[in-house]
Amino acid sequence: MSRKRSTRDWIVDSLAFVLAILIALLTYSDGSSDPVPRMLLAIDFWSGMALCLTLWFRRRWPVQLALLASLVSTYSDSAAGPTLVLIMTVAVHKPWRTSVWVFAANFLATVAFLQIRHTQDRTTLLVIAVILYVAVAGWGQYIRSRRQLLQTLRDRADRAETVAKLQAEQAQLRAREEIAREMHDVLGHRLSLLTVHAGALAYRPDASTAEVAGAAEIIRASAHQALQDLREVIGVLRAPVGELPQPAFSDLPELVEGSRAAGIPVELTLDADGPMPEHVGRTAYRIVQEGLTNAVKHAPGEPVTISVVGAPGNGLAVELRNPAPHRRRGDGQGLKGLAERAALVDGRLEHGRTPEGDFRLYAWLPWPA
């Protein structure tokens, strides 16, 4: 099914129709220089005019009409105009092999025409006809190539736009995952400490007023800090992705002190000197933070041993140990997130029970020299 003719198509077709009629009138012979029967002259003229009318259907049947024009051209002078337009139409809309066949048909028609109508200057007329056919067909092929080039550029632009859109969507998904991971890491530790102290109050109805007040103060401070952290994380939703709250490796002792202040016995061995990449230090901090959160959640009140040892060129080893409960609760999403963090910096993460019955969380992170 052919597409609807646009305003531009109407203008081009109208110009082609008028041009074909003008050429037909200019090339029509009244018989003074080419004595032929008057009946043939009448057939010549009206055949040429009828062929001009077929130009309105040249977009639908270009090859068929071009072959019809070659047939009419065997006896008609006035068919020259519409024949040239149809040859060009075939060159514009069809492959070059089809144009060659149409060209050959019209060339043979020209030879037949010269045998029927003209007896003088046949060679000159044949050369002129061939030059016109080649020029028109070449122009049509140029237009076809240019259109194909423009269409190729449009397709590339569309593909580039689609790829850019997909990349933007993937970047947005990665940003959301990063925000979700940050919310888990930032709030999980605070809320775990708050849960421990709230549970202690619930299971110690005989606690003194001073102990209750102290626990309540710790709960209040932890809740306040958790609220502040939540505000920071939510606030960056309106900021560029790179402005998420990012702790540094130097904040690790402060993290451990906060856990100790909350009543968790933590022993820290820290031996890592030298310029450390920010992403490695941040990953180590998050591993320790998640390890402390899991220790509070699954083994409250039990001692936690932390070892962070490394040097440039040797990598950074992070290990946490604490007595493991008989049944471990939770869906393990925090450990999955830590494994992803370690993999992002080309590190590795291991976790599980030791022969002594402790739970061990170990990570090795690269530390370039």
From TrEMBL:
SUPFAM superfamilies found in the cross-reference section: ATPase domain of HSP90 chaperone/DNA topoisomerase II/histidine kinase
Native organism taxonomy: Bacteria, Bacillati, Actinomycetota, Actinomycetes, Propionibacteriales
EC number(s) on file: 2.7.13.3
GO MF annotation, one: kinase activity
TM region(s), chain numbering: 41-58, 65-92, 98-116, 123-142
Keyword hit for Transmembrane: yes
Keywords from the UniProt entry: ATP-binding, Coiled coil, Kinase, Membrane, Nucleotide-binding, Phosphoprotein, Transferase, Transmembrane, Transmembrane helix, Two-component regulatory system
Domain of life: Bacteria
Signal peptide: none
Domain Signal transduction histidine kinase subgroup 3 dimerisation and phosphoacceptor as annotated: residue spans: 176-240
Record protein name field: histidine kinase
Source species of the chain: Kribbella aluminosa
Residue runs in coiled coils: 150-183
Domain DUF7134: 7-147
Pfam families the record matches: DUF7134 (PF23539), HisKA_3 (PF07730)
Annotated catalysed reactions: ATP + protein L-histidine = ADP + protein N-phospho-L-histidine
